[in-house]
Design goal:
about 475 residues, Amidase signature (AS) enzymes, 16 helices, about 40% helix, globular, binds glutamine
Length: about 475
């Protein structure tokens, strides 16, 4: 499928209509959805109506900008007013949000046409979409393999041409990792760059909404459309949003970069490392200067994440008690009703996280685990900031391997957690990071990750544009 820009250009020139674009998207859904299961809710009628309105606006000379009439999809943990939002959990099986998240609303206001809500691991906890309460999604490149997760449905929808772009969310890699596995571009912005208002909370100090697109320029456009301060999220950054498209146009030739050795160790498949080295060499030929940097605390990032994220999740998920949202399983008394509703409503991975989280926060363990993890988080961030005194950006693999097979890691939570070892540090440090497709390995997509200093998405996009250019050769 064409990029958002190509579609917007064709709309501008009158070569297609929004109705036509939406029909093409729905045709793709009709031919591949049964196999791939990208969506939890589809909006065929609503999207066609919205498309017709967009076409009318355009004919009347009232186009709302680049996004007007473009089909897109939202991960099903982003609230959409009046449209079922489940977080892929039984406990929110019939939830109709009374308002839309800020990111969704900003795209609505620009006339983008929502075609559906995409599949994810329950409450965004997972790396493959296999933990969705509604069944897994499959990788469009090889349906025997996972698309990654937790924003797997969004990555599949973009990769399979079911929409022109999608939003996902990240707590520890959930946009970049599926982007890498499916061969599309995934962005996790800096913590605070995009409002979290209306994103169903997993771990609030880590969560960010991110973008899935066909190329880097589209990513810059979508991020530009949803970024910026929001009075409804006090952690959103008020600072002005730079011109990301200008950064993409400029490219990264003037920039310096480093490839931290901690991201190129044994756990990372040799083919994946070789692809990163190939691209690093090509960047140097483009004039980018390579310098040595090290990030020695990287090896502890995964451990710290699996303390901090479950701790915050156990607190955030306490609101799902069967009283206010979703189905209630009645018991003899209030406490038994809580137990039953939560016992039946949550899947096994979510329960595992709640158990882990309450454990590390409990008296006696708090200092040993939670406090230590927070200290590590501070060290990691300081270490990144020091590295960014040496180089503008960092280049690493996005994931240690290409997409694994369905079922390969479901019985081994630790193996599943390893899929995020290279993405989690950016979440802990609050950095912006992007995954750009490299040259496929054995027919499977692989992701190249670029990380930049906090709120320097402009540097990230500039470098990513050059990575995209050299990676394709
Ligand atoms: N796979 C990681 C986890 O399970 C990250 C998930 C995410 O980024 N939402 O926690």
């Amino acid at each position: 499928m064409e990029s958002l820009y190509t579609a917007a250009d064709r709309l501008e020139r009158g070569e297609t209509s929004s109705e036509q674009l939406v029909r093409e998207a729905l045709d793709r859904v009709a031919s591949r959805e049964e196999e791939l299961h990208a969506f939890l809710t589809l909006l065929p009628e609503g999207s066609l109506e919205d498309a017709k309105e967009s076409d009318k606006r355009r004919l009347g000379g009232h186009r709302r900008g680049l996004f007007d009439g473009i089909p897109w999809a939202a991960k099903d943990n982003l609230l959409t007013e009046g449209v079922r939002t489940t977080a892929a959990s039984k406990i929110l099986g019939d939830y109709l949000p009374p308002y839309s998240s800020t990111a969704v609303r900003r795209l609505d206001e620009q006339g983008a046409v929502l075609v559906g809500k995409t599949n994810l691991d329950e409450f965004a906890m997972g790396s493959s979409t296999e933990y969705s309460a509604y069944g897994p999604s499959r990788n469009p490149v090889d349906p025997s393999r996972v698309p990654g997760g937790s924003s797997g449905g969004s990555a599949v929808a973009v990769a399979a041409g079911m929409c022109h772009f999608a939003l996902g969310s990240e707590t520890g890699g959930s946009v970049r990792q599926p982007a890498a596995f499916c061969g599309v571009v995934g962005v996790k912005p800096s913590y605070g760059r995009v409002s979290r208002y209306g994103l169903i909370a997993f771990a609030s100090s880590l969560d960010q909404i991110g973008t899935l697109t066909r190329d880097v320029r589209d990513a810059a456009a979508v991020l530009g459309a949803i970024a910026g301060g929001d009075p409804m999220d006090q952690t959103s950054a008020a600072s002005p949003v730079p011109d990301y498209l200008a950064a993409v146009a400029e490219g990264g030739r003037e920039l310096s970069f480093g490839v931290p050795p901690e991201y190129m160790r044994e756990g990372v498949a040799p083919d994946v490392r070789a692809e990163v080295e190939r691209v690093a060499a090509a960047l140097e030929r483009q004039g980018m200067r390579r310098r040595e940097v090290t990030l020695p605390h990287t090896e502890y990032a995964l451990d710290a994440y699996y303390i901090i994220a479950p701790a915050e999740a156990s607190s955030n998920l306490s609101r799902f008690d069967g009283m206010r949202y979703g189905p209630r399983a009645e018991g003899q008394d209030l406490v038994e009703s809580y137990h039953r509703s939560r016992g039946q409503g949550f899947g096994p991975e979510v329960k595992r996280r709640i158990l882990l989280g309450t454990y590390v926060l409990s008296a006696g363990y708090y200092d040993t685990y939670y406090l230590q993890a927070q200290r590590l988080r501070t060290l990691l961030r300081q270490e990144f900031l020091r590295a960014f005194e040496q180089v503008d950006v960092l280049l690493t693999p996005t994931t240690p391997t290409t997409a694994f097979r369905l079922g390969e890691h479901t019985q081994d939570p630790l193996a599943m957690y390893m899929a995020d070892a290279l993405t989690i540090p950016a979440n802990l440090a609050g950095l912006p990071a992007i995954s750009v497709p490299g040259r496929p390995i054995g027919g499977l997509p692989v992701g190249l990750q670029v990380m930049a200093p906090p709120l320097r998405e402009d540097l990230m996009f500039a470098a990513a544009a050059t990575v995209e250019e050299v990676a394709a050769r």
